[in-house]
Design a protein that fits this description.
This protein is an all-alpha fold. The protein has one domain. It has 7 helices and no strands. Helix 2 crosses helix 3, helix 3 packs parallel to helix 5 and helix 5 packs antiparallel against helix 6. The model has no long low-confidence stretch (mean pLDDT about 90).
Length: about 150
């Protein structure tokens, strides 16, 4: 069976799914923005309605976003949101909470130590390690620069 290059390209174009990059970018943008807007709303709520200092309101906002993300992950809703929004759900604190809770739920049947405890940081562990190492390097550079200035 001889197929010309032109016919082959038509077959490839027909079989290949169309690109949805623009749609994916827009969904990531508005869902990520919505998560950040909810965070700002929580900060305003804690600060102006409950009378907290800004520092405390931000702390409680982080705690609340982690809790919401963990609950949505445990109810298998966060994955559905992530499939729709893609990178928009990687807003650091909610994505990090999801990356800790999801393996913990998946491996809980293996026990608390060998399952939950050992596998909980399987995804988030490298983030913690490299985040800690890079912050130490940044701190050393900052201290060195300040010493010589």
């Amino acid at each position: 069976m001889n197929i010309t290059q032109k016919k082959y390209q038509k077959m490839v174009d027909k079989a290949s799914p169309s690109s949805t990059s623009l749609k994916n970018c827009l969904n990531a943008f508005w869902v990520g923005g919505l998560i950040c807007t909810i965070g700002q709303g929580l900060t305003d709520l804690y600060q102006y309605q409950l009378g907290m200092e800004l520092k405390d309101a931000r702390c409680f906002t982080s705690i609340t976003l982690v809790l919401i993300s963990a609950v949505l992950t445990s109810l298998s809703l966060y994955d559905n949101i992530a499939k729709f929004a893609g990178a928009g759900t990687l807003v650091p604190i909610t994505g990090f909470a999801n990356s800790v809770v999801a393996p913990a739920i998946e491996f809980k049947s293996e026990g608390f130590v060998t399952g939950l405890g050992a596998k909980m940081f399987i995804i988030a562990g490298p983030v913690i390690v490299y985040g800690t190492v890079s912050s130490m390097i940044y701190g050393l550079i900052l201290c060195t620069v300040r010493t010589f200035l």
